[in-house]
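Cross-check.
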Amino acid sequence: MSTTYTLDTATSRANPTPAPMKRLTVPAIQQRKAGGVTAKPVVMLTAYTARMAQLLDPHCDMLLVGDSLGQVIYGLPSTVPVTLEMMCAHGAAVVRGSYHSVVIIDMPFGSYEASPEQAFASAARILKETGAAGVKLEGGAAMAPTVRFLTERGIPVVGHVGLTPQAINALGSYGARGRSQAEADKIVGDAVALDTAGAFAVVIEGVVEPIAIAATKAVSCVTIGIGASAQCDGQVLVAEDMLGLFERTARFVKRYENVAETIEGAVKAYAADVTSRAFPGPDQIYVPEG
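Predicted model, tokenized:
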């Protein structure tokens, strides 16, 4: 797939005029970390729709089509019910809406755990149907053989350790991980195993900070923190969380805006205009010619 795009901007609100730029690549992300140091941290946010991708893309290095869309878009109680079809549909939309960022798509629960062969079939479908650059999967050392199987066959992989939401039924809660020494050692060991297996990046989620720092120092690949540490090689948040679209968010989320309040205000004004017949006004109606 081409790394540059030309869209017909005359026919759809979904295709505003894009700024010409070349899409980043997986090797470009890998090269951010040299000698264990990342001089320019990687900026990553989630995106699930073409329009949101358009807004985020110029400012991000990576866009993650996360299985968090189950909760954010579909109102599901967890990420477990998310399907491969959902990920492919939203992943394709994000690729169409972006021109600069490396797009990574989560592999949903049940689409990769059974065997490396199952994982390859799922990942191949995702890349074919979306045009994304790579996939992300959860799990540490147990998934290292699968990561190696995928990377040896040309599929870039982002790993995910620490708090792994797809395992919520086993974990029992979304609390921070790594408070015991045994768990801390396992998280660092998981990151190393994924790095050794060929993952080009590893998300470290919901862990006490010293573990995130230790894992970042222990691996040669880029680490992406979420509820981890500013010392990770990059950061990711759910865009809707940092924009303030939800009342409740995790402790590690910083709200940069209160978009929900803005939307509510606009809808309230619209409703008032409709009920008072102030909308549509002269500027929004068509009049006979002549």
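Confidence is low (pLDDT under 50) at residues 1-7. The domain at 26-240 is CATH 3.20.20.60 (TIM Barrel). Passed to J.P. for a second look.
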